[in-house]
Every structure is written in C-alpha cells, then in structure tokens.
C-alpha cells in the first residue's frame, strides 16, 4: 500500500512539474508564411510530400513579453511588431544570428498586434492580443 501511495504521489508531482514548465513559456503565437529552400527546382515540378513541416522559429507571449526562439542559426533576422488599430510600428529591430529574443511590451496598450519575422530564408507573421 505504501509503495502504491508513493508511486501515485510521485506521478502527480512529475505531471505537475512537466505542466508548469510548459506554462512558463506562455501562449504560443501561431506564425504563418514562407520558408524558402535553396534549390533550383520549379515549385510545380517538385514532388508533393506530406508530413510535418519544420518550423525554424517559435514565438510566445507571457505577461506582455514576446519571446522569439530560433531552432536553427539564421544570419540576419528582422523582427517588427505593429498595432492593428493604428498601424503604428511599436517595435522594429534587426538581429545578427539570434538564438532567443525577448521583447517587452509592458508600456503598450491592450489590443491586437502583428509580429513579422523576416530573413533571407523565412518570412513569417502572426497575430496576438495583449
């Protein structure tokens, strides 16, 4: 009985720990757009493949801070955030070989914002609400 109780408590503690680690990342911002490949094949002649598409960039929102993490090394990346209602650019910066970028938006008003992540190989955009 003691072993069963110990296993149950250990399992619950592990599950809670794993859940809290994912929660700290915050809400994931869905990014859509183009990921360009270096090849000389006409897109119409390329074989159609089905499977998981590798996403080289992920963005998260937690407590009005946008975190952008890069799964692969990209030489130059430009990140731009605009407010939907006014079209005003609230953040624009170019980075050299970033691994992770944090953007503090605490001084911004509530509303809908757009994020654009652009480099030679990718052009992604997403929408999020503060």
Give a quick summary of the entry.
The chain is an alpha+beta fold and 130 residues long. The chain has one helix and nine strands.
Number of strands: 9
The gross shape turns out to be extended
| CA(first)-CA(last) distance | 49 Å
Strand % is 35-45%
Q: What's the alpha carbon Rg, rounded to whole Å?
A: 20 Å
Query: Helix proportion of residues, in percent?
Result: 10-25%
The helix/strand series, from N terminus to C terminus, equals: HEEEEEEEEE
Largest sheet: 5 strands, antiparallel
Question: What does it look like?
Answer:
The structure is a single chain. The chain has one helix at 2-25; strands at 27-29, 31-35, 57-62, 65-70, 76-83, 89-96, 100-104, 112-118, 122-129. It has a five-stranded antiparallel beta sheet, with no helix packed on it. A four-stranded antiparallel beta sheet has the order 1-3-4-7, covered by helices on one side. With 130 residues, it is α+β, with helices and mostly antiparallel strands. The longest helix is centred in the first third of the chain and has 24 residues, at 2-25.
């Amino acid at each position: 009985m003691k072993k069963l109780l110990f296993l149950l408590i250990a399992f619950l503690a592990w599950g809670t720990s794993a859940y809290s680690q994912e929660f700290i990342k915050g809400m994931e911002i869905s990014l859509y757009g183009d990921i360009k490949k270096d090849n000389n094949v006409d897109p119409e002649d390329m074989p159609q493949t089905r499977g998981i598409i590798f996403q080289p960039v992920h963005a998260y929102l937690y407590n009005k801070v946008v975190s952008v993490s890069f799964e692969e090394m990209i030489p130059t990346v430009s990140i731009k955030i605009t407010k939907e209602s006014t079209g005003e650019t609230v953040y624009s910066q170019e980075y050299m070989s970033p691994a992770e970028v944090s953007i503090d938006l605490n001084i911004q008003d509530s509303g809908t914002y757009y994020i654009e992540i652009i480099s030679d190989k990718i052009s992604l955009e997403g929408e999020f609400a503060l």
